């Protein structure tokens, strides 16, 4: 592993083979690595079996596990892969501050009756760029997010009333979860970068879809789908959808409405307040077994934008004018990164610690628009500047010149 030196404590574990050959001395750090390996070995797996699978001699593995011999980087990498665990954790006992776990929205393929994400391979490049930006901004790893409540009702209380009005901002400030919006993504994702929770949403004017996705991705964190050794699974999608439904359309809110007397305008206002689509509301009503009027049924057959626009009026409804609808569309369709991330990148660019290309990509501007310190490698200019300084007149020279040139002309 590049970058490790003899002064690095992990050198005893990861380094060249010659360095790692001790004289039989027990070492606490090496013993700790051995203990972590044993803790990840499946029940029934012997040391001989593990040694065979990672191309080590049984005696060499035994001595390494007992602190009498170090591991090479290749050996530990093979062991981490075989035991499906983190190499960083095996070496240090700490979670990797830059480890990335990804959960994606999977659409339902009715013909195959499975959840799919056909754009994942194309999206991976953008997701990798986001991870690289975080590592550039926070070389020691981003600050950890606090654990989220596994109850949608508790999370709703934390977010506060009418949180969908400033959804992204409220999520970042009250839940300590970063929200990123990027164009060109095929779907929405949640990432854990180290211990930091990050939701990445595809830019779209359909703010109601984006709202649901944000609730869905928050559910992945709240339900612990990012906390295991492996990335979240497709089977986590249904629990995340149920959590999102209770977060945005809680059962008590739905059941307290008089659905047999609700008008089209009432439905439009409810959609506006809760930030969901006609389809989401229809599915929620069906799942809760709520009986509704014919007018509600007719309203829910319309598209969300057309229903809300038809009922938007600055003086008569809670929606306000159609300008408010446009504002939501623009916010949902705008590229965005957390302010704290941008500020950290700005500071590191200004200090010369990282390339300005990171900041330029986040701000979506040409790199030439970024102010950053440039190293002065022009030695000829430096030499000329030193000569000018050496040849400049002294204070006494200036006084003599002023005295001479201030005499009256004869």
From TrEMBL:
InterPro entries: Cro/C1-type_HTH (IPR001387), IrrE_HExxH (IPR010359), Lambda_DNA-bd_dom_sf (IPR010982), Rad_response_metalloprotease (IPR052345)
UniProt protein name: HTH cro/C1-type domain-containing protein
Similarity comment text for this entry: Belongs to the short-chain fatty acyl-CoA assimilation regulator (ScfR) family.
Highest taxon above the source species: Bacteria
Organism name: Nocardia macrotermitis
TM stretches of this protein: none
GO molecular function: DNA binding
Segments forming domain HTH cro/C1-type: 44-90
Gene3D superfamilies: 1.10.10.2910, lambda repressor-like DNA-binding domains (1.10.260.40)
